[in-house]
Give the backbone structure.
Amino acid sequence: MINKVLIANRGEIALRIIRTCHEMGIHTVAVHSTADSDSLHVRFADEAVCIGPPASRDSYLRPDRLIAAAEVTGADAIHPGYGFVAENAEFAAICEDHGLVFIGPTAETIRLMGDKSLAKDTMRAAGVPVVPGSDGVIESALEARAICDEIGYPVMVKARAGGGGRGMRIVRSAEQLESNFNAARNEAEAAFGDGGVYVEKFVSQPRHIEIQLLGDGQGRVKHFGERECSIQRRHQKLVEESPSPVVDADLRARMGEAAVRGAMAVNYRGAGTIEFLLDADGNFYFMEMNTRIQVEHPVTEEVADCDLVQFQLLVAMGERLSDTPIQMDGHAIECRINAENPFRNFSPSPGRVTAFHPPGGHGVRVDTHAYAGYVIPPHYDSMIAKLIVRARTRDLAIKKMLRALDEFVIEGVSTTIPFHQQLLVDPRFVAGDFDTTFLESFELKP
């Protein structure tokens, strides 16, 4: 049994984990930087420990301070949430070395799936479709040129480590290759301390579809259907929904089976996601595996009527998954509410929230750590809330989301609410006619 969990994270995801722990009778420990002392996750945890100054590198990214906080409070498990140390294989190994249950996959799995070239090889061996490209990391632009000549342009140069769109460059011709290859490698080295890059065929105008998985580390893996995540800006997701408006039952089954095969190949434990690119002809290709709970997990929880964090905790305590099939029903949409000004190129808008009134009503959920009087610090990701709605159909879910956005009052800082209000009435979005390039042609009106 797990008796006390330290949440190695902040904000809304930390609060969301605390809630499930309390429902399960598990005590919680919040960690926080000095900038986060007034966050709701600190208030609602059973205990709280300050682990350093505002900068993440001096607080949330310090394994030594996280382990020390767990030891001084007597925690017997650590939940990393998403971001920070969630996909840090070394941290997972350190937890196990200190007798702490890491609520996630093994360090070996994280390490394997975190190396995108090795992950691709693993998926290919498991029979999961992958995008044509290099067999692994390539050392020079000259080596990359030979591969590109074989698979054809356009291609994508991608960092072996990390994510969030960093270390990625689209190359549309041989003349652009060398400069983009070097730029991607330099950016990857600066962002992740690892300049390794690989090359793969660029899938033009794809949709970004991901499959939610849960494995027990004892040979069983389930999938919970797909999430549509194609509404992105600079590779950052802004809106997610489940199910996808273009995935039918046959495609869902094939993508789900492929994702399960991939997870089984690494004896996956915990919640994870396999992300696919889906082209216009219905072909799908493995992109990456996220070895953690994801920001957009609530849309799956709403259509599957489940608690994915509870599943994570139960699996971490050694429970096996049942054979009961997952039943999906209805449609859910999530809008990420960021403290950004969409009319000024989404520039960050930290500061004091002077008024905060979240929407309510049937089928409306708000995951947030903000409140009236809360000061949004400038040191972290700008997301301050996730607005999730569920309805019987996609059309009804869009209408419900528009109503909820209209009710959502946040004053004192700029937010992305106006962006979402315009997006959800765009005829192309309403028709489900979009891909990952959609926002390049979307015009936000003042």
